[in-house]
């Protein structure tokens, strides 16, 4: 397991940018359910060894029980955190790319204070000032702030999909969380599409 470090954050803290916000999304590639972004501002520390939850990494690589424990610890110690969510109807209307960007913006807008700098996994947030953004390739594997945002967002979305499973039974949303697994594809073929599905993803090919 490759764990994230605070190297990127430490450089920014040393420049006086104390409110460094990590941002990441989950659910972008799912067949169903919302896309969710997390934004997390961790307390600045110097030297760069953070007295924070150990084992921060890409949320997809962590076991569910580990993610949930880390999410609680992150939320308890963070200076600020927020969730940005975009529902299926909006995804179908504007496309997943723009919907993901909107989720990023909503997460940042949900913070109590604007961050001094944003570290984001892979790409810029188009509708925000790019001068204080830093896209980081594989950021959820490298930056503790981005990894923390990834974990908080995934735990939130997974819980939401478990709740939505009760509203849309028979698809296995509590199991696969809306991703295009064989189980999910078989359920679509058997039951058809429901209101939780992203029709903009051309899912009719699985019917």
SSE layout and pairings?
Elements: H1 7-14, E1 20-26, E2 35-41, H2 64-77, E3 80-86, H3 88-94, H4 96-109, E4 117-121, E5 133-136, H5 139-142, H6 144-167, H7 173-176, H8 182-191
Parallel strand pairs: 1-4, 4-5
Antiparallel strand pairs: 1-2, 2-3
List keywords for this structure.
207 residues, alpha/beta, Nucleotidyltransferase, domain 5, 5-stranded mixed beta sheet, 5 strands, 14% strand, globular, manganese, RNase_HII/HIII
Brief overview:
It is found in: Cytoplasm. With 207 residues, this protein is an alpha/beta fold.
Give an account of the 3D structure:
This protein has one domain (7-164): Ribonuclease H-like superfamily/Ribonuclease H (Nucleotidyltransferase, domain 5), CATH 3.30.420.10. Helices cover 41% and strands 14% of the residues. The chain has helices spanning 7-14, 64-77, 88-94, 96-109, 139-142, 144-167, 173-176, 182-191; strands at 20-26, 35-41, 80-86, 117-121, 133-136. The model has no long low-confidence stretch (mean pLDDT 93).
The residue-averaged pLDDT reads 93
SSE string, helices as H and strands as E: HEEHEHHEEHHHH
Number of DSSP strand runs:
5
- State the distance separating the first and last CA atoms: 38 Å
